[in-house]
Design brief:
The protein has 277 residues and is an alpha/beta fold. It has one domain: Rossmann fold. Helices cover 28% and strands 21% of the residues. The protein has 6 helices and 12 strands. A 6-stranded parallel beta sheet has the order 6-5-7-8-9-12, with helices on both faces. β7, α4 and β8 form a beta-alpha-beta unit.
Length: 277
Amino acid sequence: MMMCIPLYWCACSGTPILLQWRESIMPMNTPAASGNDSRLYVYALAGIGTAPGFMQEFHGELSRRLAASTGFTAAGGLLYPYGEWSRSVRRQIWEVWRDIRLPAGAWARSYGVAAVRRELEPAARGSGPVVLVGHSGGGTAAVHAADMLLAADPERPVAVVQIGSPRSPVPPVLQEATVYCYACGPDGRGRDPVCRLGSWRAAGEPRGRLPVGRAVWRKPGQLVPLPIAGRHPDYFRGHLRAAGGASNLELALETVEKHIQGLWPQLFGEEERAPFS
């Protein structure tokens, strides 16, 4: 069945593209976590049409700050769940659009998760806290990957940050641990076109014995406006100054740090830190 995808903006160039796609399925399994772990796994998941190293500075600085603040050893890496700009952008858009439309319970078929499964295996085998920061379509892959990690170990501390991402349902187990950031103007209104794509609406449970479900909303736990300079491709620009004088990069870093600190205060010494096991 052919379907039409709305306009989608490449992560780096801001170029809109319109195309058609055919749905397919890709199965995937995630290994279970086990053992004690003193590592903090930090992953940055890039969006579509992204230049190599686009989020490298952000990922490196975030890993350094979190390791220094928590005493954990930083691990993880920069991931491209839909490929870099050398790969067909049309194919990448097809995969992202299919992924954001996957129903709950079907995320093992996520293209984004399947593409980065090998890179996520160290975190999947471990038991330390995991931070997944996704830009653009990478935010969808981050939610799906986090849900797969929790399926293997429901007690696993996992946090997700979506930055400039299309909307897609967040499972209840992840809602409190997920923050959604979007570019805004001086008036606080959103100005990132990618953030208007998709929906947080998900199919609900049947009503009693009736085979009719009710619509429910699976929004992230927090929605945070970022008054950056520029638009969708510019969240991690160190040379662009956001409102208040801070760089876009610094604003993104501070927002992620604040979310992690609020979610896991014991890691930052606000409470006695207990090992994750």
